[in-house]
Amino acid sequence: MTCIRSVVAGCGSYLPERVVTNADLAKFVDTTDEWIVSRSGIHQRHLAAEGELTSDLGLAAAQAALDNAGLTVDDIDLIVMATTTPDDTFPATATKIQMKLGMHHGAAFDIQAVCSGFVYAMSVADNFIKTGQSKGALVIGAETFSRLLDWEDRTTCVLFGDGAGAVVLKPEEGTGELSDRGMLTAHLHSDGRYRDKLYVDGGPSSTQTVGHVRMIGKDVFRHAVVNIADVITEALDATGYTIDDIDWFVPHQANRRILEGTAKRIGLPLEKVVMTVGQHGNTSAASVPLALDTALKDGRIKSGDLVLLEAMGGGFTWASALLRW
């Protein structure tokens, strides 16, 4: 029995030019390099320049993904963008990128699931492709998260950075077997009871301000390790694979301790975990595609590999996806 799979045809990423090291932060925040590294594994982060917008970051990553795929906007008819930091309240930042790409057809929209946003967006685009509603999709995760930070709150401002990543999904006929290339399964979850553990204290309807990130770190850590392990198990159970079958684990780059705790809990060797958090910090919805692009460019991920994606964000939201490269 044949079926349509969503195959990753191209991948791209972008990081702003400005690099801020832990030593740079220590000049105006009560912190040290040792304190930051010991708690998060982060050494530096990239910050968007004055006037550099989320759409600018997303556009650069999107164009890189299209170039990597050898495709143009004529080959896609859908843009799904994950972001917590849109250029404007409306219209959707995806439509701005659509315009800048010179794409005047199809549909473009944003989704908001904070750090889980990219995996959510991959699932949304996958369903459009599987049902024949899209001939090709551009999935983007882009953030200027630094603009949500309280630079006097060392528990949050040291953790986050700006960046963007994108993939191009194209339909490909499969056999329906797990040996097919493409998206094999995806699992999305949320639980609004935990909103106060990680949130922004502002918004158009509540305070008419942008607000700042607020977090109870120890609670987020505890829930993250459990929820991530559970949603990974869910993906494995849905396919019949075991953790030993996974070639590469590409998680949301929130905190090295969370990644190490998750790997230990699910029995996955750290050598199979793609970690880029040290180089760019937590870039929210951009972190999974940034890590994915890094592992593709350095040759770790190869055709035929089984790749596991995972993320957890404020809300709480959490998600996983399993792909055959």
SSE blueprint and pairings:
Blueprint: E1 3-14, E2 18-21, H1 22-25, H2 33-40, E3 44-47, H3 54-69, E4 78-82, H4 93-100, E5 107-111, H5 117-130, E6 137-144, H6 154-157, E7 162-174, E8 182-190, E9 198-200, E10 213-215, H7 217-239, E11 248-251, H8 256-266, H9 277-280, H10 287-297, E12 306-313, E13 317-324
Parallel strand pairs: 4-5, 4-6, 11-12
Antiparallel strand pairs: 1-7, 2-3, 6-7, 8-13, 9-10, 12-13
Helix pairs in contact: 3-4, 7-8
Notable traits:
325 residues; alpha/beta; Peroxisomal Thiolase, Chain A, domain 1; 2 domains
CATH topology of the largest domain: Peroxisomal Thiolase, Chain A, domain 1
> How would you describe the shape?
globular
Biggest pleated-sheet summary: 5 strands, mixed
* Low-pLDDT segments, ≥5 res: none
Q: Strand-and-helix sequence, N→C?
A: EEHHEHEHEHEHEEEEHEHHHEE
Structural class: alpha/beta
Count the E strands: 13
- Radius of gyration over all CA atoms, rounded: 18 Å
The portion of residues forming beta strands comes to: 25-35%
What is the mean predicted local confidence, pLDDT? 97
Q: From the 3D coordinates, which CATH architecture of the largest domain would you assign? A: 3-Layer(aba) Sandwich
Whole-number count of domains: 2
Strand numbers in spatial order across the main sheet: 1-7-6-4-5
